[in-house]
Predict the 3D structure of the following.
Amino acid sequence: MKTSGLSIVASLVTGFAVAQTNWSVDKAHSRLGFSVSHMMVSETTGSIEVYEANISSKNEDFSDALVELRAEAGSINTGDPNRDKHLKGPDFFDAEKFNVLTFKSKTFTKIEGKKYKVTGDLTLRGITKTVTLELTFNGIYNNNNKTIAGFKVVGILKRSDFSIGLNIPSAVVGDEVNILVNAEFVKS
């Protein structure tokens, strides 16, 4: 009798377990953008290519999500080939040595509605720092038998925290870099 009682409990517990859902980035509809002050009178904008990003979550509202992202510093694009070459070089990203940048979330905290705070480890130029970013969950839609979730992420990083452009005065290139990510993820 004990065995069948345990079997029933085990069946109930596993029957109520919620499956984890995995999502993969849709590169064609995602952008990791940035802007930084230039000469204190304008902003330089650009983007870095995300080549892999995944979200896993058991909750439909993503309140327990884990996020992992990998991007290539060597893909930086500001619309000016000479500036891009300089940014890829040793003064800034040193993409030859440190081409991969990563982000791995530690916490994904719901603030209210569709607003979240995402804290995780960001590695740039071989230096890992814990950063907190603001995320908006834009919603889910179905398109051609695919379920797609949209997100917007904003935040501010200090380039000096990652030894990026240390010899460049902040009056020339601002130390604070504004991050703007718009991304779509496809349910696996």
In short: The first strand starts at residue 21 and ends at 25.
